Amino acid sequence: xxxxxxxxxxxxxxxxxxxxxxxxxxxxxxxxxxxxxxxxxxxxxxxxxxxxxxxxxxxxxxxxxxxxxxxxxxxxxxxxxxxxxxxxxxxxxxxxxxxxxxxxxxxxxxxxxxxxxxxxxxxxxxxxxxxxxxxxxxxxxxxxxxxxxxxxxxxxxxxxxxxxxxxxxxxxxxxxxxxxxxxxxxxxxxxxxxxxxxxxxxxxxxxxxxxxxxxxxxxxxxxxxxxxxxxxxxxxxxxxxxxxxxxxxxxxxxxxxxxxxxxxxxxxxxxxxxxxxxxxxxxxxxxxxxxxxxxxxxxxxxxxxxxxxxxxxxxxxxxxxxxxxxxxxxxxxxxxxxxxxxxxxxxxxxxxxxxxxxxxxxxxxxxxxxxxxxxxxxxxxxxxxxxxxxxxxxxxxxxxxxxxxxx
Length: 407
Prior knowledge:
Strand order of the largest sheet: 5-9-6
């Protein structure tokens, strides 16, 4: 057994297969991947990693398994999945996941190939665990996969509390201890026991508040856009392969961006925090449906057209379209008067938060500071935004940032 001091859960005891997995290269690599990608450029203390988050998920998974009375090989599989659930992440966490998926067809939770080979596969087989079965749990499949990856999973419980702790933002604080204690299995489905609608609602509220404040803060989104564009260029120029990019850590990617001629300027800007600025920041009601639902190729076409109209290089225009708002947690099952119900049916808060999510949604168009005015006008025309001249350009309307919200 190994005891590790954690900033969120205090002392975490790691034993069995999880202890053996801890020192594999695949898990140690997570020490070099920031949990929140480039969010440390907004919140300087947000330097926590996927490694410590994986320990937190393991701890909560152990708590849930003990509470549910699950033991033996079934429990060991879940514990292994908890430690390994993030080994499929590329550099900067979710930041370039879409780039990697377009080239490899794999998201971070598709880890069958990673668990079957090298040290991880050897450890799992040494403990009489099938790597394929563990990979299924990471993807939220099989009966107990819901514990690690579901609507009410320990992954979500840990990252909300951990991200709030390390950013100093209080909105992600939830009663994760009670959430774990109140879990129960009914007909193979993970649900919250009677009387816990407010406990489940706290999870929804935390996500709704953390999204605009941390996860989709406009500076974080600008950094993500720049990293995505740089990674795309790295692949297009043949500087690395998609498979190599997928297994890089944060340091590897940044070094690769610095070395390559086509991405060196992006690396300089990110390293010096000389970031692009908002040329457009438009609400959903002002954006045509065709733009809201635009795919990658359509967005690249928009960027090229905006750049041509603004008279700038197309590398200096980034169109950032978020997915339509969704709330997977609303399908969380709770017991009410002896009946299992979806939280969306039981909670009036769900419909209110769905409206809030739609109101929080923003289309971003980013460019270097000296080009935001021309790019903003071009974007308003090309994207056919119905802003009545009210689109946001930081250069025209905000001047020098003076608050955290504007930083």
